[in-house]
Automatic annotation (TrEMBL):
InterPro entries named in the record: IolE/XylAMocC-like, Xyl_isomerase-like_sf, Xyl_isomerase-like_TIM-brl
Taxonomic path: Bacteria, Bacillati, Actinomycetota, Actinomycetes, Kitasatosporales
This protein's record includes keyword Isomerase: yes
A Pfam family hit: AP_endonuc_2
Protein name: Sugar phosphate isomerase/epimerase
Origin: domain of life: Bacteria
GO terms of molecular function: isomerase activity
Gene3D superfamilies: Divalent-metal-dependent TIM barrel enzymes (3.20.20.150)
Domain Xylose isomerase-like TIM barrel: 41-290
Keywords, in A-Z order: Isomerase
Length: 307
C-alpha cells in the first residue's frame, strides 16, 4: 500500500499528537487484565504525550473535577470521548443510544474535549467473537445508519458543542473503502466528519492517503495505527475475528507495519484543518510492562515525522 506513495515527513503545527487507553491494552471500563487508570495516566505523560482520549466510559474517573485534577497535574489534556452506537437498527434504539452518548459527551465537554469519536457496533460479540448480526447492511439499515448519524451529530453539536467523527472499524458495518465511501456520500458534510484510523482502514483493505486526498474535507480526526502485513494475511486467509487477531499481534508499532505513516501525515498536513492524531495500538490484553516502552518509541518515531 505505502509503496505507491513517496514517504515524506509531515511538519504541521495544526496536527496535535496524543495517545489513548487503547495503547495500554484498555478495551473495557473495568477489567482486571487491563492497566489501572492511574498507571495509564502516569505512563502516557512519561512517554511524552500531552493529549489523551477518555477510552471506555468509566475507565477514567467520571467526576469532571477529579478528572481535570488528575490529568492537569500530569500535563495532560483531553481531545475526545468515544461511544459505540448501533444506529443501523433504527429509531427503536435512539433513546438508549442518546442516554450513553449524552453522558460521554457531557464529560468530554466538562474536561475540555472538543470531539466525540463514534464507532459503529460490532457484528461480532466483542468478548466471544460470536457472530451476532449479518456483516452486510440492508438498504433500509443503511438509511437508518446515515440518517441516525446525522441526527446524532446535530444533537451533539446543539446540546454539547462537540463535533462527531465516525470511526470505520474492523468487524463493523463501516469498514471497507466501498462502505466508507457509501457512508460519506450519503451523509451531510456539514455535520458528519470521519475519524480515519489508519490501521483499521488498512486492515480492511483501504488506502489512507487516497481517502485523505479524495475526501479531505471530511477528515476531522485521526487515529494512528499500523498492521503487521504477515499477520494480516494469515487473519484474512483464516477469517479470524478482530479480537483474536489483536491477540495474534495484527496491530504493531510503527514503523514495523502498514500503512507508512509519513505519507499519511504529509497528506493530512495539506488539509485546511486542525487535527488531532491519536496513537491507538490495539493490544488487548497485554502484559502491564509492555505499553510504556512501545509508547516511548512511537512518540520518538512521530517526532521524526514532524509531530
Amino acid at each position: 500500500m505505502s509503496a505507491t506513495h513517496p514517504a515524506s515527513p509531515a511538519s504541521s503545527p495544526r496536527i496535535r499528537v496524543g495517545s489513548a487507553p487503547d495503547s495500554w491494552g484498555v478495551w473495557f471500563a473495568d477489567d482486571p487484565a487491563q492497566t489501572p487508570w492511574r498507571r495509564f495516566l502516569d505512563e502516557v505523560a512519561e512517554a511524552g504525550y500531552a493529549w489523551i482520549e477518555l477510552g471506555p466510559y468509566g475507565y477514567l474517573p467520571t467526576d469532571p473535577a477529579r478528572l481535570r485534577e488528575e490529568t492537569g497535574r500530569r500535563g495532560l489534556s483531553v481531545s475526545a470521548g468515544t461511544v459505540f452506537t448501533a444506529l443501523h437498527r433504527g429509531p427503536a434504539v435512539w433513546e438508549d443510544t442518546w442516554e450513553q452518548v449524552a453522558r460521554v459527551a457531557e464529560l468530554t465537554r466538562a474536561v475540555g474535549g472538543r470531539h466525540l469519536v463514534v464507532i459503529p457496533s460490532f457484528w461480532r460479540d466483542d468478548r466471544t467473537a460470536e457472530l451476532i448480526e449479518s456483516p452486510e447492511l440492508t438498504a433500509e439499515q443503511w438509511r437508518h445508519l446515515t440518517t441516525g448519524t446525522e441526527r446524532l451529530a446535530r444533537e451533539v453539536r446543539e446540546r454539547f458543542g462537540l463535533g462527531i467523527a465516525v470511526h470505520p472499524h474492523a468487524d463493523t458495518h463501516l469498514d471497507t473503502e466501498a462502505h466508507v465511501e457509501r457512508f460519506l456520500d450519503a451523509t451531510d458534510s456539514g455535520l458528519v466528519d470521519l475519524c480515519l484510523d489508519t490501521g483499521h482502514y488498512a486492515y480492511c483493505g483501504g488506502d489512507s492517503v487516497k481517502l485523505i486526498e479524495t475526501y479531505g474535507e471530511r477528515i476531522g480526526y485521526l487515529h494512528l495505527k499500523q498492521v503487521d502485513p504477515a499477520v494480516l494475511a494469515d487473519v484474512i486467509a483464516k477469517g479470524t475475528p478482530f479480537g483474536p487477531a489483536v491477540r495474534q499481534g495484527v496491530m504493531c508499532e510503527p514503523p514495523r507495519g502498514v500503512p507508512a505513516l509519513e505519507p499519511v501525515l504529509a497528506a493530512a498536513a495539506k488539509l485546511d484543518a486542525d487535527l488531532f492524531a491519536i496513537v491507538e495500538q490495539d493490544m488487548y490484553p497485554c502484559p502491564p510492562d509492555r505499553p510504556l516502552p512501545i509508547a516511548r518509541r512511537t512518540r520518538g518515531f512521530l517526532r521524526g515525522c514532524g509531530l
